[in-house]
Structure formats: C-alpha cells, structure tokens
C-alpha cells in the first residue's frame, strides 16, 4: 500500500494515538497535545501514512461501537428473561449525576437509605429532552398492615443523566468494557426497561462513536422508507 504525506493536524485522534504508540510515546490527551507530541517526534508537521492504516482504525472503531450496542441489547434481554439476577431491593428515583455514587459499594449503601418505589414504564414518550421525571402516587386505603406506596416513572432523560459517557477519543471517558459493565449494574439496580436503556445508551455515545451510530440509524431509516414506498 503506497504511503502518502498528511498534515499531522489533519489526522484523527485514533490515528494519532496509534502512531504515537508505534513510536512508544505517550498516547493520552486531547488532540492538540497528540498533534504537538507527534510533530516534536517527527520534527515536521507532516507524516507519511498509508491509507490502509487510516482505514484499519476506522474499522476498529466501527467494530467497537457495534459490539458495544450488541452487548447492551444482550444484557437487557438477559435481565428481561431472568438470566441475570435482579437484586431484591426496590429502586430509587435518580439523583443528579454530579452526586451519583460512582462505585458499587456506594450504590449498595444507597439502597438502605430510601423509600421503596415501584418502576413502571411510561405509556407515551414525548420529544427527547423535553421530558421531566414524574412522581405518581396511588390512592390506596390506609390499613394497619399496608402503607401507601409511590410509583416512580423513569423517563429517558432520567436514565441519560445516570449512565456514563462513551467517547473513544477521550481518555477520561469510560472504556467500552467499563461502559457495558456500568450499564449492566445500573439496569439491574434501577429495574430499567430495555427500550429505555438502549435509547439512553445511544444518547451517551460521543465523538466518532455517535457519528457512526447516527449514520447507521439514518441508513436503516432510508432502507425502511424504501421498503414502505409504493412500487411502480
């Protein structure tokens, strides 16, 4: 495969990181840091790279995002079918992500300090981003053995606020493995519905991962329109 000269500043972060790793240089940081590091190493603002190296990086990203979404779907299906045990504790309303417990012990501890809630899926969804959490209370007859319970309805915005972010170009972001593991644990703890988790997980993809999944969605939508259009 012939090699061509490319301006280092025009290369994507995955390519920059690969080139830095190949040279046994630090590959963490934002794009300006990666560009400067590679320019200092090469002594030039251009570098010879084969088209094959760039395409391989794109393929790796597509495979990572595709596998990630398949894993999310598999986890939710397993939870729904009872193949993954759900903790026998009622979930709690979501809290702002800034104060959300970030480790499993903290999440477990939070379960002992709350009022029981039952989760139900909303019957209708409004436009994404315009929905606020709602708390519905049942009108139940008070008895000596039964107290009125509250029914919390998780909305997409709630779940999005709790899930971590996955950005393959951001070293601070969760890795694909951490993203999947966190989704699995939170879905069990909060008893989320499958459609909510899949919707929210896609919303938490950033950078090239989001662009790739958006492009895939647009492609499926166009194919569906083509199938539904009247034949001439």
Automatic annotation (TrEMBL):
Lineage: Eukaryota, Metazoa, Ecdysozoa, Arthropoda, Hexapoda
Name by which UniProt lists this protein: SAP domain-containing protein
Pfam families to which the protein is assigned, alphabetical: SAP (PF02037)
Species of the source: Hermetia illucens (Black soldier fly)
Domain SAP: 8-42
InterPro entries: SAP_dom, SAP_dom_sf
Domain of life: Eukaryota
């Amino acid at each position: 495969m012939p090699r061509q000269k490319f301006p280092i500043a025009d290369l994507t972060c995955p390519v920059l990181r690969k080139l830095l790793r190949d040279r046994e240089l630090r590959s963490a940081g934002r794009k300006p840091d990666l560009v400067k590091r590679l320019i200092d190493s090469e002594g030039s603002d251009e570098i010879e790279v084969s088209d094959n190296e760039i395409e391989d990086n794109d393929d790796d990203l597509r495979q990572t995002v595709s596998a990630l979404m398949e894993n999310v779907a598999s986890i939710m299906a397993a939870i729904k079918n009872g193949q993954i045990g759900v903790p026998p504790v009622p979930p709690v309303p979501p809290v702002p992500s800034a104060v959300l417990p970030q480790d499993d012990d903290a999440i477990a501890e939070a379960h002992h300090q709350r009022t029981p809630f039952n989760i139900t899926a909303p019957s209708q969804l409004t436009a994404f981003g315009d929905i606020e959490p709602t708390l519905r209370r049942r009108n139940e007859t008070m008895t000596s053995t039964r107290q009125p319970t509250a029914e919390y309805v998780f909305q997409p915005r709630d779940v999005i606020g709790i899930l971590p972010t996955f950005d393959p170009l951001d070293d601070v972001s969760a890795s694909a493995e951490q993203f999947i593991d966190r989704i699995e644990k939170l879905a069990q703890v909060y008893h989320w519905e499958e459609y909510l988790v899949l919707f929210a997980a896609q919303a938490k993809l950033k950078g090239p991962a989001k662009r790739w999944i958006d492009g895939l969605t647009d492609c499926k939508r166009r194919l569906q329109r083509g199938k539904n259009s009247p034949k001439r």
